[in-house]
Amino acid sequence: MSERDEAQGARSEHRATQRFARAANYSAFPLRLVLGFSGGVDSTVLLHALAEARAEFPLELRAVHVHHGLLEQADAWVEAARAHCASLGVPLQVAYVRVQPDGRGLEAAARSARLRALAAVPGDALVLAQHRDDQAETVLFRLLRGSGVAGLAAMRPIAPAPLAGAAAPWWLRPFLDLPKETLIAWARERGLRWVEDPSNASADFTRNWLRAEILPQLEHRLPGVRTVLARTAETMAEAQQGLDDLAALDDERVGHPQGGWDLAEFLRLPVHRQKNLVRWATLRLPALPPTHRRLEEGLRQAADYAGGVWRFPLGEAWLCARGERLWVEAAPQGCDAAYRCG
Ligand SMILES: Nc1ncnc2c1ncn2[C@@H]1O[C@H](COP(=O)(O)OP(=O)(O)OP(=O)(O)O)[C@@H](O)[C@H]1O
């Protein structure tokens, strides 16, 4: 390695450590971190960055690798992950999951199963290696599927775990503002080895098609578009925070002493705030938010409420009225009620 390479390596190591410290909002207390380690390039770089950060911070680092059992390479990936972690003295847990296709497609089912397995590992925080290009891709994908503000807020660098009852309360993404090419350059500088998931190359999945074909074309025409899309997520996250604050105020303003809302007071709110309040309350159950159309129909019917017990299905929740009260409650048969990260 030349002197120049060494200097570059040292600089990027320093940056990775600083980045981690910032993302973890790090102070001097010991932190038990669990890294979601797939063995791909991004999480391999993060594994090394965190392993090195142990020299500077009192970290307890463990890794978890989820074995989905879907591809013939899965067992070899486990072995590669074990070897990698052993070489750095990082304990590795392997979580074997069974992916149950549930009508949303195999990729989405695998993702849900993976999130559940990751959420089951105890620690102070789970650390994931998503980067700026993943963020841009998520924003574009969700835009094309008609997501609203909450969906377009995409991923946060520091966020509460998105699953109810997760064993690590915080999820950290220290690389979220770094382009993928920076991570690849880091890995090459260090001579790291990683595995390639062949399903990432399959254009059968819309996300892969966006990543491999559409985003490069957009970037060619509009240089910097990935950064623009990633910034959209930040703007939307702030907007969502404002909407949540408004919903919390409205919840208090029209709250009923027996829980839920006073129906007459609720109906005096402008319709867009009624919608915002019901969405907010649904997410806190927790349940997936209702579609716009269901929500509109539910609110239209609530406005015509004529007494008795009334219930309207909103996907994973019910909108209910009785007497002078209106409220939302979880639907017992909610298809996947604990999962709400979209
Ligand atoms: N099988 C897995 N086991 C443990 N963690 C995983 C696994 N797959 C993904 N992750 C974690 O979730 C993050 C996001 O997953 P995604 O599928 O978008 O990334 P990836 O393409 O697998 O990334 P990487 O280059 O790290 O492999 C990864 O960066 C990694 O931290």
Automatic annotation (TrEMBL):
Keyword Signal (UniProt): no
Highest taxon above the source species: Bacteria
Catalysis: reaction(s): cytidine(34) in tRNA(Ile2) + L-lysine + ATP = lysidine(34) in tRNA(Ile2) + AMP + diphosphate + H(+)
Compartments it resides in: Cytoplasm
Matching Pfam families: ATP_bind_3, TilS
Positions annotated to bind ATP: 38-43
Ranges where the tRNA(Ile)-lysidine/2-thiocytidine synthase N-terminal domain occurs: 33-212
EC number(s) on file: 6.3.4.19
MF annotations from Gene Ontology: tRNA(Ile)-lysidine synthase activity
Domain tRNA(Ile)-lysidine synthase substrate-binding intervals: 262-327
Purpose of the protein: Ligates lysine onto the cytidine present at position 34 of the AUA codon-specific tRNA(Ile) that contains the anticodon CAU, in an ATP-dependent manner. Cytidine is converted to lysidine, thus changing the amino acid specificity of the tRNA from methionine to isoleucine.
Alphabetical list of PANTHER family matching this protein: TRNA(ILE)-LYSIDINE SYNTHASE-RELATED (PTHR43033)
Sequence similarity: Belongs to the tRNA(Ile)-lysidine synthase family.
Protein name listed in UniProt: tRNA(Ile)-lysidine synthase
Natural source organism: Tepidiphilus baoligensis
